[in-house]
Amino acid sequence: QVQLVESGGGLVQPGGSLILSCAASESIRSFSSMGWYRQAPGKQREWVATVTSGGNTNYPDSVKGRFTISRDSTKNSVILQMNSLKPEDTAVYYCKAMRPLSRNEFWGQGTQVTVSS
Q1: Bridge-partner residues for 80, per DSSP?
Q2: Given 14, 50, 73, 78, which residue has the most CB atoms within 10 angstroms?
Q3: Is residue 25 predicted with pLDDT exceeding 90?
């Protein structure tokens, strides 16, 4: 069973930055894509960023230009660099990995990000 462990969350002021990390229990090369999602209280989980095995990235308009996702195969990790944070970015952030072919998905337990002055 794949284990994904997120870290790096915390409290940050508006306009600040945070770096989230997702460490996988196996080589991230075994996944066709990895991504970040978030869920704010009372809201549905929403997609934040995706990176494919080929290195292609994609973002929704809400975070485009502020967030950057990247892969570190040497550490079996996916990183989410978050800049210019806003209060509406407050949520629990989850890491997801997906297998090719079977498209099985694996999720981490989440890390809390709070943007507040």
Answers
A1: 20, 69
A2: 78
A3: yes
